[in-house]
From TrEMBL:
GO MF annotation: an example: nitrate transmembrane transporter activity
Membrane topology: Multi-pass membrane protein
Family statement drawn from the similarity comment of this UniProt entry: Belongs to the major facilitator superfamily. Nitrate/nitrite porter (TC 2.A.1.8) family.
UniProt-listed GO biological process terms: nitrate assimilation
Keyword Transmembrane set for record: yes
Superkingdom classification of source: Bacteria
Keyword annotations of the record: Membrane, Nitrate assimilation, Transmembrane, Transmembrane helix
Record's protein name: NNP family nitrate/nitrite transporter-like MFS transporter
CDD domains reported for this sequence: MFS_NRT2_like
Amino acid sequence: MDIRNKATRIRLFDFKTPQMRAFHLSWLAFHVCFFGWFGIAPMMAVVRDDLNLTKTQIGNTIIASVAITVVVRLFIGLLCDRLGPRRTYSWLLCLGSLPVMMIGLTDSFETFLLARLAIGAIGASFVITQYHTSVMFAPNVVGTANATTAGWGNLGGGTTQILMPLVLAGILMLGVSESLGWRLAMVVPGVVLFLTGLAYWFFTQDAPDGNFRELRERGELVRTEEEYSARNSFLSAVKDIRVWALFVIYAACFGIELTINNIAALYYFDNFSLSLETAGLIAGLFGLMNLFARALGGFFSDSFARRRGPDGRVRWLFIAMLCEGVALLLFSQMQVLTLAIGSMVIFSLFVQMAEGATFGVVPFINRKALGAVAGIVGAGGNAGAVAAGFLFRAELPAGSGDPGGGGHRHCLLYPAGALLARDAQ
């Protein structure tokens, strides 16, 4: 599609132009989606006791929360092409708010699992965020725009860990029981999601000159024959081994981030005997690194490219992934709280820089099938989270390290296939 009048500069404090309104609302919408997507995660200690969930069942809910996103991410780009990012995002937010609020009605593992599965569709918001900024900004700044909106959106993974336990604590102060408290707490992100969807509908537009429907009616948005055949570009992307290499790499960085978002609060709660609020605060540090880390990964990717050409981007991606693996080894062995927090922050830095470095390479794989490549690679992140989720399902025999007799083990996954584990202290 030939989109005209794209912005050539990013003016952070400009809220009047359609380009900057799309910029700010797209990262804000992605940020808010994390509250619905992972809002339940920092409260899992309470949910576990209320619904009598086993470790295997908790692992299954982790898998469910990210599994459906793999499929939705693959095809959400097609909806953006047909309906426009404004309509697609608004509908995703408003419809996605329903299972977020209705998760409070669950009373068994099965219904809780189905609710988390339905909520997982919200994770496709990443693709729409990247799509909308791509059609709003010119090539000279689109990389920075994409990396910044993605990073600030992912920041929601950290703020969710911090704020949701506080929301629960506030509700409990009203004299509500824990069983009812976590259910009422999930209404909050559901309402915020719905209101954000309305804001996206009224304050954004698909392209700098208007919405796709209006542009097509005026004859200003005409597809070429090549673009019509681009629907088949998905097949060309599927056949490209480089796409699947990036799929695996993104699984090993963003997939790990999603997994940490799901289990970090429970990990600190169980292993260091912290309160739910303190565990959530510490777990939130992992996501808060998105404030700058992902954009930094994209910045270094551009810097390496200027010095060494396209190969420089690949070399930087290798360095970021290698450092992520080393940091993961360190984090997995920490048994002192302060050291665990410090190593987690370093681990988070390289995880998110690796994500930015990955999407620093994506635009240069297949320009004619960019949407398909981005969709497949983006889905890889959730596929990685699904794979990592299986590591948290296995029940160990009683007395194999868990002082409570459950004998569970905390595991972390790295792409080379190494399984890093330590017994819960």
